[in-house]
Amino acid sequence: MEIVFVRHGQTDLNKTGRIQGSLFDHDLDAEGRVEAEKAAAKFDPSSFEVVFSSPMTRALTTARLFVKGQKEIIEDQRLIEFNFGEWDGEFLPELGKQYPDAVDPWGKAAANYVKYAPSGATFEDLHERCGSFLNELQAKYPKQKILVVCHGTLIRMMFAHYFTNGNMDYFDTINNCALAKLSYLDGWPRINYYNRVLS
C-alpha cells in the first residue's frame, strides 16, 4: 500500500498564523487557491486507485483541484481536522507566552494543552481516529495507491501512528499543498518523503 497525503491550500487563518482546527470551515483564500492550482498543475492523479478527502471545505476544494475530475473523491469524517476547543482561532505564539507548559519548543501545541482548552480533543483521541482510518486502508487496499487530502495535524498523526506510537513531537506540520508519502508492506511502514512542495 502506498499513501500520498496532501495538505489543503492556504486559508485566511493560515495566513494570519491562527490555529485552524475543526471549528473553522474556511475555504482557501485567493492566494491559497492560486497556490493550489499551481501545485495541482504539476500533480498527476491518474495512478491513484482510491482518493479520500476530509469533508471540510478547504480540503475538498484542494482535492478537487488535484484530481481534476478524474477520480471519485470519498469523504471520510475521520479526516476532519483536530478540534483545539477554546484554542481554535487563537494565535499560538500568544498562547505559548500565556501557557508556556502547553506549547513545545517548536511552537506547536503540546499534548497537555487540554488543561487550558478543556473542550478540545486529546492527542490520544486523534491517534485512535487516524489509526482506525489507516487500519481500514491496510485491510481494504493492501496493494493499492491511495491519495488522501486532509489537514496538517492529521498528517503529523498519520506518520506518528506508524513510527512513534502516536507521538507527534517528531513530525513538523507540512506546508500548504505539500505532499507526504508513506508505504506499508507486510507490516512494515516506510517514509518515502515528507513535506514535498510542488508549486
How many β-strand runs? 6
Question: How many domains, in number, for the residues?
Answer: 1
Largest sheet: 6 strands, mixed
Mean pLDDT level: 95
Strand fraction band? 15-25%
Q: What is the level-2 CATH architecture name?
A: 3-Layer(aba) Sandwich
**Spans of at least 5 consecutive residues with low confidence:** none
Kindly list the characteristics that best describe this protein.
33% helix; 6-stranded mixed β-sheet; 199 residues; single chain; 6 helices; alpha/beta; globular; Rossmann fold
Any overview of this molecule?
α2 runs parallel beside α3. The mean pLDDT is about 95. The chain has one domain: Rossmann fold, CATH 3.40.50.1240. It is of the alpha/beta class and about 200 residues long. The two termini are about 25 Å apart. It has a six-stranded mixed β-sheet with strand order 3-2-4-1-5-6. This is Phosphoglycerate mutase. It comes from Lactobacillus xylocopicola.
